[in-house]
Amino acid sequence: YEGSTKIFADQFTGEYDEWGNEIWERVLTTLPLGVSYDVATNTMTLTNANLQSLHLNYHNQWQDEEGNFYEEYNLPNENFTLNLVGYNTISNTKNTALGLHNGVQATITGTGSLNLKSTNSIYNVNKEGIRYAYDTVRLDQSSLTIAGSSKVTAAIDGQGYHDNDACWAHAIAGDYENATLTVKDGASLTVSLPLNARRYDDTDSYDG
């Protein structure tokens, strides 16, 4: 994901196995200013951090053309904690700000705040000439719990515009069967839309 903060990266060890194949290992990356990560507790702490995007993908699985099955785990476990200290922002003009994918069970907690924003424009057009827009928060087969005294804002800036009426931009969106959102323990979630937000489909347009 363009601009996304990466916790781990694959790095060549400089060694080879008995068949001459390169040996790679997964290592922690150098995280941006204001971001720390504890592997033992699977906890990321944001301290007055400003990020472009944060995408977490717990479990990938795929099958090759010969029918061989593969799977990969990108986090120590599915239970991920995002701890907020101070005022933090994740703002993106080219992607979803916060994405949880493939089984992540995330909890946002702490005493701080997090302002999430994706900026959309009617001028966003891909190479096929199709207009597109991004959700600010995306939950794909994943759950998000906002707890403690944390304060989270999910905002769409600009006009969420798409040629396909099945693909509107949302402040928070996810697959209907497997995505869950919970706010508890005095935490707060504020969803913000622009006053000039407009929806277009084949028959009608809506203002408000």
Identify the overall geometry: globular
User: How far apart are the first and last residues' alpha carbons, in Å?
Assistant: 31 Å
Record the strand order, biggest sheet: 4-5-10-13-16-19
| Average of the residue pLDDT scores | 76
Runs in which pLDDT lies below 50 for 5 or more consecutive residues are 160-167, 196-208
Total DSSP helices: 0
Major sheet, described briefly? 6 strands, mixed
Q: Over the alpha carbons, how many angstroms does the gyration radius reach?
A: 19 Å
The secondary structure category is mainly beta
Helix content: under 10%
Classify the beta-strand content into a percent band. Answer: over 45%
Q: Write the element-wise H/E pattern from the N-terminal end onward.
A: EEEEEEEEEEEEEEEEEEEEEE
Number of strands: 22
Write up this protein.
With 208 residues, the protein is mainly β. It has no helices and 22 strands. The chain starts with a strand and ends with a strand.
